[in-house]
Amino acid sequence: MTDPVNDARLRGHEFHYEYETFIDMSDARLTHLERETAGKPDHPMRHDLEVIRRARAHGGLWQSTTIYLYGPNSWRFCLDDCDDRGTFLDAVEYHRVSWQLNPRLLAITDPTNPRGSFRPASLKETWARELRYVFGAGLGPCVLSEKHPNRVSRGTFDIHLDIGGGMIVRALGELQHDETVVVRETRVIECPMAPDFVGEKRAFVGGTTFQSCGLFGYTRVERSHTPGQPDARLVNFTVAPISLPAEEVLALPTPGREDPIRGPVSQVRVIDERGDSIKTRSFDTDGSGRVLPHRSGESPRNDGSFPAWFVWMVLPGIGLVVWIVVRKVRA
User: Fold this and answer.
1) Using CB atoms within 10 A as the burial measure, which of 56, 82, 101, 324 is most buried?
2) C-alpha neighbours within 13 Å on the C-beta side of residue 31
3) Is residue 287 included in any domain, yes or no?
4) Which residues have C-beta within 8 Å of that of residue 96, sequence separation ≥ 6?
């Protein structure tokens, strides 16, 4: 399986896809959850309730994702929400500086020593995980498990893989004439560290060789735990060469400079976490900056202009958190 962070064949490319999440919940269960969380802003299910409400309102949750990959430490990860309010979240690492931008807040940090809630390494792992599923069915270094029967016959395989930590994954697929390995389905058989993952299935569709990078991958990946009911899917995956240089796409937004992805950046609060102290300022409408006092605990995670569920979903990894929500609400 390719390592998307370090594989030179992927550098200089942009990857685009949509991520859809579905949550099935009865009206009675939703009412019960609303009663449990009413008047309790710190209730552990408050975030879950927000995710569920948005999913019901939109027939599921939808995010558009674009990754600009120039190198292992030079990348931009762009997420756009499904609604029409222009909600977005961008994260960038470039020249030992990382920054994260939403419509009203810009956070800047040192990726080697992040001080606030913005953790560039977590976001890098998020997009790298998605690319691993596209380009390698999510199967990292592993060995054939002898605990379960394995079958390879006439160009097809049904095998069990030990991927570490006691986790056993069953993989089904075929070996093409040019020796391309095409995985059609994976299913978690054993997972002692997280038993709830047992039974999780992923289906891989639209296998193709992406001409711009020369790698085989899938245009669609579906995840499910209940047979016939996918709870999330990555769709419409495309690869194309990046048309702009890194110094334009990854440069830190400044007053008076138009960002090539988001346009003019103005009327945003800036939190600079580099150095010995946290510095806070703002870009006002004419592009000048005025100094503002730092408010303890302020970060992109809790800025009121940005839906809490959106950042909460992204930081630990989009698929994992929503899967946890699904498991909790079905319990």
Assistant:
1) 101
2) 3
3) yes
4) 73, 110, 111, 112
Question: Which pLDDT belongs to residue 326?
Answer: 39
Provide the pLDDT for residue 25: 67
**172 in a domain, yes or no?**
no
What's the whole-number average pLDDT of the chain?
Answer: 81
* pLDDT level of residue 201 (50, 70, 90 thresholds): very high
Give a yes or no: residue 155 inside a domain: no
Please count the structural domains in the chain. Answer: 1
| Alpha-carbon 324 to chain mean position | 15
pLDDT of amino acid 290 = 57
pTM over 0.90: no
3-class SS at 230?
strand
Q: Which residues of 280-301 are buried (b: 16+ CB within 10 A; e: fewer)?
A: bbbbeeeeeeeeeeeeeebbbb
* 39-50 core/surface letters (b: 16 or more CB in 10 A; e: else): eeeeeebebbbb
3-state secondary structure of 34: helix
| Residue 301 forms part of a structural domain | yes
Q: Which domain holds residue 326?
A: 8-138+204-330
